[in-house]
Amino acid sequence: MTDTSNPTGRVASASEPAGRVASASERIETSAPGLDTGAARPTRPASAFTSLDALEAEAIHIIREVVAEFERPVLLFSGGKDSVVVLHLATKAFWPGRVPFPVLHVDTGHNFPEVLAFRDETVARLGIRLEVASVQDYLDDGRLQERADGTRNPLQTQPLLDAIAAGKHDAVFGGARRDEDKARAKERIISLRDEFGQWDPRNQRPELWSLYNGRHTVGQHVRAFPISNWTELDVWSYIEREQIPLPPLYFAHERDVYERDGMWLAVSDVSRPRAGEQVERRTVRYRTVGDLSCTGAVLSDAASLSEIVTEVAASSLTERGATRADDRLSEAAMEDRKKDGYF
Amino acid sequence: MSTLFRFATAGSVDDGKSTLVGRLLHDSKAILADQLESVARTSAERGFGGEPGAIDFALLTDGLRAEREQGITIDVAYRYFSTGRRSFILADCPGHVQYTRNMVTGAATADAVVVLVDVRKGVLEQTRRHLAVVQLLRVPHVIVAVNKIDLVGYDAAVFQQVAADVAALARDLGLPDAHVVPVSALAGDNIVDRSANTPWYDGPSLLELLEALPSIDELETDLEALRLPVQLVIRPQGALAPDLLEQGAETADDYRDYRAFAGRIESGTVRVGDSVQVFPAGVTTTVTRIDRGPVAVDEASAPLSVSLSLADDVDAARGAVIAAAGSLSEPRRELDAAVFQLDPRPLTPGSRVLVKHGTSTVQALVADIRGRLDLDTLATTPAGALEANDIGLVGLKLSANLAVEPYAAHRRAGAFLVIHPHDGATLAAGIVTEGVPA
Which intervals carry biased composition (Basic and acidic residues) (chain A) (predicted)? Predict the structure, then answer.
């Protein structure tokens, strides 16, 4: 895969004769472009495995570490593509056994019906237990109040923390990725949360090699992010490679939508156009799945996984920029929610 | 399909590291329109200098509120971009505060480290420290990006002097593979494309180098002896995956007695029929089956996660290591190590700690502290305790046998964490030095 015949670019090697070492000027005289990669040792062919193989191996390693070291792990499962991928990785990690932990859905009550159906079908197919933390219950009995803007994403934190405590979960898997947000880019793969579920970004444990330190005291728990190092394109490429089932709204379909703040919102019980906002029938798909009232669709004809991979690779917007109203609140919206115990 | 390559960036304050990282992401089209717009807006609000529309690339990597408010980088940030050939994971390590802690974190898993040098300042003490850490951690490749070449009028002689100093330093430190590239992060010279402004430089651009250097996993690990630390034992018994149960009673029966050791191959290759030894007991047996999830394979190499079935009913659990027969020396209860002190609480002789190595965690005693490594002179000076950001040489006594190996021989098998036994904090990162000439 590399040309090792030309010393271009290489300046120093302790193990080589002095004439070669002082090659800064020598390289300057070299005319042929080419790279010495320093690979005096044999290398395996680049095709032996791909970045997806490496990311899959890392994620399975993380999932197994958490299951081995914690008493009561749980996976946050929304039916969204990232949590679907983590669940798929878990089935591979423990095959031929079943996935040895339940899933937890923090239900905003603002769900896409097809996502709820997918959630129920998935847990039934895999034979795993579903726990539900309902934001609606909290609103009904007054423990939470509806926000003025109607979005329920920030309201998920309290039901989530209560469900973690009630289930005595000491480790909580999530599908968060570091490429999603500037604050997430700084979070560890195994991230300690205090008794209040809070993340302290300035006091994180250094994470070295593939040694994950998940030790915690009573009341603390960890969040575990096995696909931290995946990008949106990795996720889609992997879903295509593994042919993982997804909720249908990820694929192009016709829907009644209206445009607000540059996003296409679905017409539903919880999201209605305001005066002046025109409802249109458009061919759309979703890049993320969240609170129905604030998750935008994108105009797209991508109806198959390969078309989606092509579309994502060519996209000029991040998935959050394109589809999440709540992250536009401020530059530190995600950091502030995470500090309070959010995903 | 692309391959994965992990690299870290390091530099002193004002070397232009954030600009370099931003430039790399921007020019490789990894920054999308909405991110750019947000950064441009903030740049304008803060009155970022330069021409109208100039962008403060540091805003892309400084993700925390405190970082943006104080204009400093606190923590390692991870960034992702890809070219047709490779997917990159970039660990952006701040250079000024707690530089050892951040460097060690970023470099521990890196295939390459990019160290920035300001061409006007040349090789500084901190450059030397960064490179010394890279050498200790045995990062396969170092790229020294000699930045701000535009500010010396693209003068070949100035660059050559710095390049010669780097070469001498690399030789001093025993760095196996160092590359020097003249760049201007601000102007984009030799970052993605080779620059017309440096006709005297015929080498690759920074990105070309990053695309071509072999990663650790592409290097010799598949030629090394097999190491697989056992994470857990998969023994589904009644709890078979539902899709197997659906395939009928016969299929279910096939897996009723399934027992396999799950783990990630840290080095080497394993094939069905291979003779392996299971530590700490040291029993020798044969590999009968290798599963990658639901797919049975004939062989698998590092760094894949697999499940191995063995011919004999070996008494092994989490913490065991499966190794090519005869390739691993006896597990040890004492070891010599270099440790990077990360916690503000000093490490002292007599400290009781936990050592996490592979999939084992054991109690340990810091038997003695042999000294502190001076990164400027590479000499060891006596020390009674190790303070944060010190690199020290220590002797550890373990409460149980561990299958440790010198870090020089096996990066993954020679690395460990030192953990506080009560609050669980990661106190230090350690590498086994035994058997390696100092």
Answer: 321-343
